[in-house]
Structures are given as structure tokens and as C-alpha cells.
Design goal:
Helix content is about 45%, strand content about 15%. The chain is of the alpha/beta class. Strand 1, helix 1 and strand 2 form a beta-alpha-beta unit. The protein starts with 8 loop residues before the first strand and ends in an 8-residue tail after the last helix. Bound molecules: NADP nicotinamide-adenine-dinucleotide phosphate.
């Protein structure tokens, strides 16, 4: 059972990033999906190399330059996609702007930049794609909604908003609206550096790897729950720390 369609058309905001690329490869390989990435950067050699690599496993992904925090830009991207593909079957919010700093040293602009990509992009998805008969909207959020890591107040606030917004949208929209609160990805994405890996290892946090993550998303999309957290702990003390304030079901 799956919620993905063979030949489905999927829009991934932040698709050219690490986890967006992993997700795209999965649906292209498994379901011959037509994937459209939205990002702010002009298409550069790095993005083109990702597109070329994925073209060798299935339908070539498209790339549209748009800042999804700007509703007009996202709407223009939507119209372009509709013209080219006719239908859209699913949306993924995989965008992030990571600008860590302790709250005392964070100026408002920096705080807003980290927050906006979660708050404004979530709201814009709801406004721009409202009329689309979608199968699902998938929000990539973080374990940070629960852990609330120091130095990440902007990101944490954004993730908590994203979780709450998605849970309300799930009540209002007829399609599946799901949130995955990812733990740490050590091999792809915005924190896949050696330094981060060392820090996480010390804290007893393991790296999520693509196959297990894609399996978890399949379960989330067809399962009865609208929100799942997926994290890897290497010691039980890490688990107890997270679990102290929140109720989790361990699977
Ligand atoms: N990596 C992890 O360990 C981890 C853990 C927990 C949760 N997550 C979540 O997983 C998702 C993906 O993370 P990632 O690690 O793959 O990040 P990433 O590699 O940095 O990719 C993020 C992408 O978002 C795009 N983006 C940023 N602002 C945008 C905007 N306003 N409009 C359109 N695109 C925008 C960026 O492209 P441009 O700069 O070109 O716009 C970039 O390609 C995020 O939602 C993040 O919160 C990740």
C-alpha cells in the first residue's frame, strides 16, 4: 500500500537540498514520479548535476526558481507547473534556512529569516495550492520541535509553527496532511558535516539514512497518524532526555 502514484506529479519546495533530493530519487525510482523542485538559487552546476543524476534513474526533475516565502512567486511557479503538467498530486515542504545563534546575540533579521521559511512557506502552500485536488501535503519538520536546541530559537519556533499549522490543515483539507519530525541526517542535507557528525555522536544521536527514512514516510502517508518523529539514538540516556517532556511511541 502506498499514497504515491505511478507517474505522480510532485512539487518539492527545497527539493534541490539534501533530503529533498533523497525523497525525489525515491519517488522517481519507485514510481516514475515527475518531480518539480522549487528553490531560490538560479540553477547552477551543482543543481544541474543533481538533475542529471536523477535523470538516469527515471523522469528528469524540473527546477523552478522562486522564493516560496513570497506568495506571488510561489503562485507564478504553480501556474507554470499547471501549464506544463496539468495535475499536481502532492507537495513537500523541505525548505530550511539555518542561521543558528544564541538568542541574546541574534538580531531580529536573522531570527525572522530562520522563522519565515517555515511560517510563510507553510501559509503560502495552503493559499496557493488550496484548489488543487492533492493526494497529500508532506511537511518536513524536526525533532527540534521537542528538543528545542540552544542556539536554534528561530528554527525551533518555525518548526513548532509548522507542526501546529499542518495539524490544523489536516482538519480542513480533504487530502492527507502529514508531518515528519526528522532527527539528525548525517550523510545528506544542511548539517551533514564531519564536525556536526562528531557532535551528534557525542550526544548519542545516530544518523538517519535514506532507505529507512523513505520506509518511515510510506508508513506515515498511509497510516492513521498525521505526525511521526523519526530519530536514531545510540544510547538510552539520549532517549530518556527527549522522552522526559513528551510522550512518544517507540517503534
Ligand atoms: N538535515 C537534517 O538533519 C534535518 C533534521 C531535521 C529536519 N530537517 C528538515 O528537513 C528539510 C530538508 O532539510 P535539508 O537538510 O535537506 O536542507 P538543505 O539541504 O539545506 O535544503 C533546503 C533547501 O531549501 C531551499 N530553500 C530555502 N529557502 C527557500 C525558500 N524561501 N523558497 C524555496 N526554497 C528554499 C534551499 O535552496 P535555496 O537556498 O536555493 O532556496 C535548499 O535547497 C527541512 O525542512 C528541515 O527543516 C532536516
Amino acid at each position: 500500500e502506498t499514497l504515491y502514484k505511478n507517474g505522480g506529479v510532485y512539487v518539492v519546495i527545497g527539493g534541490a537540498g539534501g533530503i529533498g533530493e533523497v525523497w525525489s530519487e525515491y519517488v522517481i525510482r519507485m514510481y516514475e514520479a515527475k518531480v518539480i523542485w522549487i528553490g531560490r538559487r538560479e540553477k547552477d552546476a551543482k543543481i544541474q548535476a543533481k538533475i542529471d543524476r536523477l535523470a538516469s534513474v527515471g523522469p528528469t526533475p524540473s527546477y523552478i526558481v522562486a522564493d516560496a516565502t513570497d506568495q506571488e512567486e510561489l503562485y507564478r511557479a504553480y501556474e507554470e507547473i499547471k501549464q506544463q503538467y496539468g495535475h499536481i498530486h502532492g507537495i513537500v515542504h523541505s525548505a530550511i534556512v539555518l542561521l543558528d545563534k544564541s538568542l541574546a546575540n541574534m538580531d531580529e533579521e536573522r531570527f525572522r529569516a530562520g522563522l519565515r521559511v517555515k511560517v510563510d512557506v507553510s501559509v503560502n502552500i495552503a493559499e496557493v495550492f488550496e484548489q488543487e485536488p492533492l493526494d497529500f501535503v508532506l511537511f518536513f519538520s524536526s525533532m527540534n520541535s521537542f528538543v528545542k536546541a540552544a542556539g536554534q530559537s528561530n528554527y525551533v519556533a518555525g518548526c513548532i509553527f509548522k507542526d501546529a499549522f499542518a495539524s490544523q490543515l489536516a482538519l480542513e483539507w480533504p487530502c492527507a496532511v502529514k508531518v515528519m519530525n526528522w532527527g539528525y541526517w548525517g550523510t545528506v542535507g544542511t548539517v551533514a558535516s564531519e564536525e556536526y557528525q562528531r557532535r551528534m555522536q557525542k550526544r548519542g544521536v545516530g544518523s538517519i539514512e535514506p532507505p529507512e527514512a523513505m520506509e518511515a514516510l510510506e508508513a506515515l502517508l498511509i497510516g492513521p497518524m498525521n505526525q511521526l518523529a523519526f530519530a536514531k539514538m545510540t544510547t538510552s540516556s539520549t532517549w530518556i532526555h527527549v522522552n522526559r517532556a513528551h510522550s512518544f511511541v517507540m517503534m
